[in-house]
Write a structure and sequence with these properties.
The complex is a heterodimer of chains A (112) and B (110). Chain A is mainly β and 112 residues long. In chain A, 0% of the residues lie in helices and 51% in strands. Chain B contains no helices and eleven strands. The radius of gyration of chain B is 13 Å and the shape is globular.
Chain lengths: 112, 110
Amino acid sequence: NAGVTQTPKFQVLKTGQSMTLQCAQDMNHNSMYWYRQDPGMGLRLIYYSASEGTTDKGEVPNGYNVSRLNKREFSLRLESAAPSQTSVYFCAAKSSYNSPLHFGNGTRLTVT
Amino acid sequence: SQELEQSPQSLIVQEGKNLTINCTSSKTLYGLYWYKQKYGEGLIFLMMLQKGGEEKSHEKITAKLDEKKQQSSLHITASQPSHAGIYLCGGLRTGNQFYFGTGTSLTVIP
C-alpha cells in the first residue's frame, strides 16, 4: 500500500538544465497537487489537478509546467532550472472535495 | 501573500507543558485541516474541521474551529518529545485550491 510515491528523492541540477519530477498515487484519488516547501514559507501551491484532464495554477506557477498523464500520475517539469527553484517538492492527492490531502515523502532539489 | 497565518512561528516547551498553536484565515474556509511534519519527512494528516464551532480531539491533541470558520487553534496537553515537529494548518478554498499556513516549529525539551 504505497499511497503517494515521488521520484526521485534527491536531485542536483545545474542552472538551465531541465527535469521532470514524477508523482504517482495508487489510491484512485481524483485530485492531485504539487507544492514547494521553503524555510519560513510553509507550503506553497504550484499547480493542481482537480480531476483527470484538468490542471490549474496555484500561488507560484512561474517556471513550472505540469501534466496529468492519467488518474494515477501527475508530473512537474522544470524547463530551465534556476537557483530560486531549490526547494523540497511535495506531491499530494485527495479523493473528494473536502477530504484531506495525502502526501508523498518529497523530492529535495538543489539547483546550482 | 500567505492566506493562512500561523502563530507562533516557533515554540520551545518543557515536556509535560500544554501549548496552543493558532491559525487565522483572511477569508472563510470550506474546511480547515491540521498536519504534522517530522523534520525531513512528509506531512501526516491529524484532523479536519468543517463546521463553525466544531471541536475534535485525538489522544492529547484538540483542534477547534471558530463560528466564522476563519480561525482555528490546535492545543496539545501534557506535551511529549514525540509531539515535536512542524505543525501546519491547511485550508480549502473554492475551486479545489488547498493552501497552507507558514507552519509552527515545536520543540519539546525532555
